[in-house]
Design goal:
This protein has about 425 residues and is of the alpha/beta class. The chain has 17 helices and 13 strands. The strands form 4 sheets. A 4-stranded mixed beta sheet has the order 1-4-5-13, sandwiched between helices. Helix 5 packs across helix 12. The model has no long low-confidence stretch (mean pLDDT about 95).
């Protein structure tokens, strides 16, 4: 088998066999296929696309290129959730204890963030004492006992995907649906999930800016999951404006605590209920999505969801008092209001720009070596469609820096006030095939 023949075959629009895809992934991971040939194949895939079978084969070949996590010692159906990312995306902090409160095992592998705010692990480390440095045996024991635990990502999970993604990043082939879908799904499957719920974002703060592209990606990932034996569902949700109000690590933890009590932002609560109902349904703990949603509302209102969050935090060394008393979370030195310069209706909040503003405060990493300030960030006071009076606060800036004029300027440039506004839907579609 020669790589040049496979490049030519795909360039001409023909279908690669399972054996051929396995050969490519294995030899590229081993270093026996050079980057320039893999780049040519990626570009051929970009233009010629892949069949559903090719996508499933590529996904599984990348799964088997490195370590996989065996979650079989955990009782029950393990359901994982993946979000394609956004600004103020606090869903995991809410969803994990929320669905665990209904005895759905949540064995979560998460990473640190590179961008506007930290990843799930960074946010959780806002809680005093919390740590993810636990071995696999302890991880499994915690999930069996408490139904919830979070561990850091394995260094050798899907190495083929890591190599291929780095190559795509410099060869203008990142935005290829089959390559994006197989990249995401390979990591979820390698992490041991029995079923997968996907939150595919669309809008200014999302990777997929256009709804049609988000829908195509959602269908691609759901079909890959179902084709390889993982029950998979997806939600397409809005990220034209930040989700919830908080952007920043400890600020998002506080917002998650509020939401677990039914006191959080309505958009964050609703999205968590929709995603959570899919997780509960796929885990076999409800007869329908509607039934699952009602059960989630019940544990949110009766305190069981918040109690599960405390148990989770304590299980991994964190101080559960921080959940009962969020004022014990890291606090910024200064809180500065950003007053509206005009009266009217908020018509636009550019999500990715506000994420960048939070990163400038220290809430995220500009490079992988950047040190995050867990206390800082932004808290929105208005969302699209809300009326505002001149002088009324649009945003509270939480900062440990005195000179933040650049952040103020960025906020003013990216929150528009008009006479009217069109409020985007929170959820566009639910995808099951």
């Amino acid at each position: 088998m020669r790589m040049v023949d496979l490049i030519e075959k795909k360039r001409n629009g023909k279908t690669l066999t399972t054996e051929e895809i396995n050969y490519v992934v294995t030899e590229y991971t081993n270093g026996d296929i050079p980057d320039y040939q893999m780049s040519a194949l990626a570009m051929a895939i970009y233009f010629q696309n892949m069949t559903e079978q090719e996508r499933a084969d590529l996904t599984m070949a990348m799964v088997h290129s490195g370590d996989t996590i065996d979650l079989s010692p955990i009782e029950g159906i393990k359901v994982d959730k993946h979000s394609t990312g956004g600004v103020g995306d606090t869903t995991t902090l809410v969803l994990a204890p929320l669905v665990a409160a209904l005895d759905v095992p949540v064995a979560k592998m998460s990473g640190r963030g590179l961008g506007h705010t930290g990843g799930t692990i960074d946010k959780l480390e806002s809680i005093e004492g919390f740590h993810v440095e636990i071995d696999n045996e302890q991880f499994i024991d915690l999930v069996n006992r408490d139904k919830i635990a979070v561990i850091g990502q394995s260094g050798n999970l899907t190495p083929a995907d890591k190599k291929l993604y780095a190559l795509r990043d410099v060869t203008a082939t990142v935005d290829s649906i089959p390559l994006i879908a197989s990249s995401i799904m390979s990591k979820k499957i390698a992490a041991g999930a029995d079923a997968i719920v996907l939150d595919v974002k669309t809008g200014a703060g999302a990777f997929m800016k256009k709804l049609d592209d988000a829908e195509e990606l959602a269908h691609a990932m759901v079909r890959i999951g179902n084709n390889v034996g993982r029950k998979t569902m997806a939600v397409i949700s809005d990220m034209s404006q930040p989700l919830g109000f908080a952007i920043g690590n400890s600020l998002e933890v506080k917002e998650a605590i509020d939401t677990l009590q039914g006191k959080g932002p309505k958009d964050l609560e609703e999205l968590c209920l929709v995603l959570g109902s899919q997780m509960v349904y796929l885990a076999g703990k409800a007869d329908s999505l509607e039934d699952a949603k009602e059960k989630l509302k019940e544990v949110m209102m009766n305190g069981k969801a918040l109690e599960k969050f405390k148990v989770f935090v304590a299980g991994q060394g964190g101080n559960p008092d921080s959940i009962e008393h969020p004022e014990k979370l890291p606090q910024a030195t200064y809180q500065i209001e950003v007053p509206a310069k005009a009266s009217g209706v908020v018509s636009e909040i550019v999500a990715d720009a506000l994420g960048t503003a939070a990163m400038l405060l220290g809430a995220g990493r500009a490079t992988k070596d950047s040190v995050i300030d867990l206390a800082v960030g932004l808290v929105l006071k208005k969302k699209v469609g809300d009326s505002v009076q001149i002088g009324e606060s649009l945003v509270t800036i939480h900062t440990n820096k005195e000179n933040i004029q650049n952040v103020m300027d960025m906020i003013y440039e990216n929150i528009k006030i008009s006479e009217t506004a069109e409020v985007p839907p929170l959820i566009y579609k639910v995808i099951t095939d």
